[in-house]
Design goal:
The structure is a homohexamer of 208-residue chains.
Chain A lengths: L1 H12 L17 E2 L2 E2 L13 E2 L14 E6 L13 E7 L4 E6 L5 E7 L1 E7 L5 E7 L3 E4 L5 E5 L5 E7 L7 E2 H6 L5 H8 L3 H11 L4
Antiparallel strand pairs in A: 1-2, 4-5, 5-12, 6-11, 6-13, 7-10, 7-12, 8-9, 8-11
Helix pairs in contact in A: 3-4
Chain lengths: 208, 208, 208, 208, 208, 208
């Protein structure tokens, strides 16, 4: 009877030659609007679906006293085509994740340690801010400006998941002050004072 | 023979009881993640697919010397569920559309009069700026910060289309300075100077 | 100058009458294939985007020594239309989340305490199993059978996020043994022995 | 132990209050871009997922010697939100399904009796025509003009499936000649001779 | 006049250099989350859109007295990117398609011969079972466990269509008993008796 | 302090190695169902997001006294994956864009000069026609037959945007008369008179 079942298995397996339950990214290969080209299924192991890089705290010895450790497709090729990714936020007591957007995804945050004041602003210009603590969840709609700030006296940790393998990350300060967009254009399109623009471009390494 | 064809027509029309080529929004009705509930097909006329509100220039007698006249679903219910919307930009000689994002859509702009310097910043913090003139097209990827500035000495007009009936519009200055997000949080998450924040909140009517 | 800006704000706000950055579910209202009808924007507060129910451990005093505490749209209406949801897994030392699928979403798991052996089986019938510990991440592709088992001697906690507000949850044992699917059909379509089927139907309360 | 499992079942069932594996259409209710509002789950039975209307041949005693019997959402509410629908084609010996498109879906056809010559034309204006017989399959890409013609001397039957609950159906002859589009416009936009337009409008009941 | 039209044709054809009405899979090439890379349009013929492999009955001389003959993208490259695929089910009198899921698609079944008892179980653990006969249709929502069993005394045939070129196929018995998932894990996550697991692993060729 | 920020920038930029805000098409590379493979980000400049080809009028010295100048992905690789494209219509006084469909997208038209009578026919065979002038907008749902005709005595110009980088374009006259679809099949599936078919095939260069 065993051989009969093997025949049956064969009948099915021949149709599974190109199962696409997943499509682990071949990061050396090209990208497409839907994601990377898939690594050959024969070379896929469980390690493609596991990411260990978020087990250590990110280094918060910096000006913002915070760190974002991403597991997007570039770090975690297994998420390619699966519609998800994740990152870890570490905030030292004065820590701040500066205001930013994710052009490509919504975000769901869960606090695993400490207290975080999180918020976003909607297109209608309404403000939604709340302090959340361990085990509490905050969801941020796609593409809207949002931030997280440590609200307690001790370090805070959160995990944030996104409904895209590559949600993007546009940090406002970098976009305005850390590239070569001319000061004239920054001032013109933001109404910020020239002195302010000059100061932050200086700190963030922008030119122009 | 006519009656045979009518029979044939009937055979088909009975299957068309709920054709959903379109779904003109019933703006008095509820909204859903995919768009508004549809107006009854019997009440749909060609006027639901035509919008005349962009034929006049928007009023540019304001601080930014510019105007945006939208034909999103709220103004043009016919676009509900069709994946598109459009708006008109008018820029007087010193006109500026302040830096902003559309959380929900990419944007394609065509200049119909004058010259416009347009640009966007990517998540990778690269800057893409160019001056375009009549008949020229600029495309802005979804969710990224971008702006348009009049680059000539006379008024400029452009039409911008979006791949969503409701692309959203988050203007940076409004999000930071024109609502009740506390100055403390604005300063903390943007590193802007308190004096700058206070000044722009004052001008834009923000509180907190 | 203030009044000029208010005029400008008005120009924009009139176009924001139906911004759809989000669509908090009106759970008393009807559902549609894309999600629930939206609650009126005027009634939306930050509490719609915050969920506190996962801050307490689920009750693991049961046969599987485990609990799943969901924050799907039914518990957390704010995720409606945002493409995300989350849940908390608690596993006591012998805890097991029985083998199951999520028909509607992929899942990304992060361990926040203890050690968990997690795994899934692909359509090609390959098995992917690994033990993950605190801070480590495992991703499960949509629709595939998977499970989590406590791998350590102390309690384990994980948070799992899904790329749907309502990923669904089909637990194999319930589907086979806890409803009124006839024993004859269960035996016929699974090749399980009648005695096995009868036993588990007895335990799980199935009939037929 | 039974009561423990019931407790476990309860834990899960409370989270299933709004499972959306399916969304049987409430055809008396409103439609939305994603489909009809869902019928209450408590009122759903297996009969919502079964359609018996295609078991009889359609009536082919008409000019085209053919019939299309649809099971789109209007006839088969259970397909609402499931991304599929189906129809039955009956072609008497001289039968013809006149050239038409489905704006909203691709189509996959399987012949269950007889022989059918089927074909489509691509946007690049290439023609793909072949005669298929029982058990053979032809796939038609979304939105392209296509047709089926009986290729044998006896009746032919086929089942066609679509990747939409409501693929739409635009029959060329109806669109040009069976409504009130003015003859002037028809002639202008098709370059057909006035006599031809007048003749077919007469047969198909068009006006204007 | 002919040459004027050719000029017109040229104007259009130059813009059609990369029409993507379809994207016949190059099965020797790589896969991506959205499907295979396209075969060059110049090499596409009507045979790419026709599949003849379902015209013969599958071989039902096996333990389940049934066969599934797929026309997924691996067999039928023309469906790549078109959102559809199809398969043929043959059930001898005692035939059974064992309980299984399609992670990636919904399924619509039409019986073309005989009688089939078909059913699925929902996430809410409700059972939907009915016997359908020739010409009758049953739809199965995506990702849910379902089965088909011959309900008559003679052979039954059905065609099943899916709203994906590659719906996936997870057969429960194979997933539990026909691979190297350890018996310990199978028992732990299914609560099946060790003897049952050992027996079926033996029959199905599983190890571990 | 500068070095601290650079460290911070590095933390982020390492996660941006594969940002996919955009995916400029490598037109020499392969296509996939979701679009072309992306050009390397390092080679992307602002010129990839700008298209100048619509600044000149198309040549309307032809039989239809009209021209369509597309900026689809084949002409404008920057739109790849962004969900948008655009084209320019020029109509001389007697100009006509013959009746056609876009299988893959809806279309939104804005008139920038002159007057255009535009219209479409729905699947339910209702006709929606209106004359629009400068600044006025007409939206055409995906896949439906539509046309534009110059309604004034002077030349008309419009820009049309689509919610796809490659909407496709099926011109009815070309599909029926400008290829090798046999006259027999054309007559059979359209009920057009043989003389009409022969005449237009002759003019449009069709064979068969």
């Amino acid at each position: 009877m065993l051989h009969i079942f093997f025949l049956f298995v064969l009948l099915f397996s021949s149709s599974h030659a190109s199962v696409q339950d997943f499509c682990v990214a071949d990061l050396k290969g090209p990208n497409s609007p839907a994601g990377y080209i898939c690594k050959a299924e024969a070379n896929v192991t469980v390690d493609d679906f596991v990411f260990t890089g978020l087990s250590k705290a990110g280094n918060t010895s910096n000006l913002i006293s915070a760190a974002v450790s991403p597991a997007f497709v570039a770090q975690f090729p297994g998420v390619n085509g699966l519609g998800l990714s994740i990152a870890r936020l570490d905030l030292a007591p004065a820590g701040v994740i500066p205001i930013h957007t994710h052009p490509g995804a919504s975000e769901i945050l869960v606090v695993t340690q400490g207290k975080i004041t999180a918020g976003f602003i909607s297109s209608a210009n309404s403000v939604y801010v709340k302090t959340v603590k361990r085990g509490e969840v905050f969801v941020f709609p796609q593409g809207l400006l949002h931030f997280q700030v440590n609200a307690g006296g001790r370090k805070a940790i959160a995990f944030v998941s996104f409904n895209s393998p590559n949600p993007g990350l546009q940090i406002l300060d970098f976009a305005l002050f850390a590239n070569n967009l001319t000061s004239a254009l920054v001032e013109k399109t933001t109404f910020l004072d020239p002195a302010q623009v000059k100061k932050l471009k200086g700190i963030l390494g922008g030119t122009g």
